[in-house]
Amino acid sequence: MSTKEKIQEQHDVETLEKPNNEIVVYNDDVNTFDHVIETLIKACDHTPEQAEQCTILVHYKGQCTVKTGDLKDLKPRCSKILEAGINAEII
Q1: Which of 2, 39, 68, 78 could form a disulfide with 84 if both were Cys (CB 3.0 to 4.6 A apart)?
Q2: How much is the pLDDT for 19?
Q3: Average pLDDT value for residue range 87-91
Q4: Mean pLDDT of all residues in 47-74
Q5: For the chain, what percent of residues have pLDDT higher than 90?
């Protein structure tokens, strides 16, 4: 086994050991586009363009993963989204 293969194998194992969680936002008939965009900018540190794209996906697809990462980082972000009255969960 070459050194390159060993390094790749070690990287693959590390990736498997650190699963990322996701914040998923769901569509509703209550919140406006502007409200969801502003919330994603504040809660997820999105750029206005990212927030707008996610909001469009939520509207047309019914849901969108808006942030991935460590559970410790995602919990307060998801709480901010929920406090804004937007349906979301960490999966």
Answers
A1: 39
A2: 73
A3: 98
A4: 98
A5: 79
Closest by Cα among 89, 12, 84 to 41: 84
What is the CATH number for 45? 3.30.1390.10
- Chain centroid to CA 87: 13
Of 49, 80, 52, the C-alpha closest to 64 is: 52
The total of structural domains in the chain comes to 1
On whether the CB atoms of residues 58 and 27 are closer than 8 A, the answer is: yes
Identify the domain containing residue 55 by its residue range: 19-90
Strand ordering across the sheet containing 88-90: 63-69, 21-26, 88-90
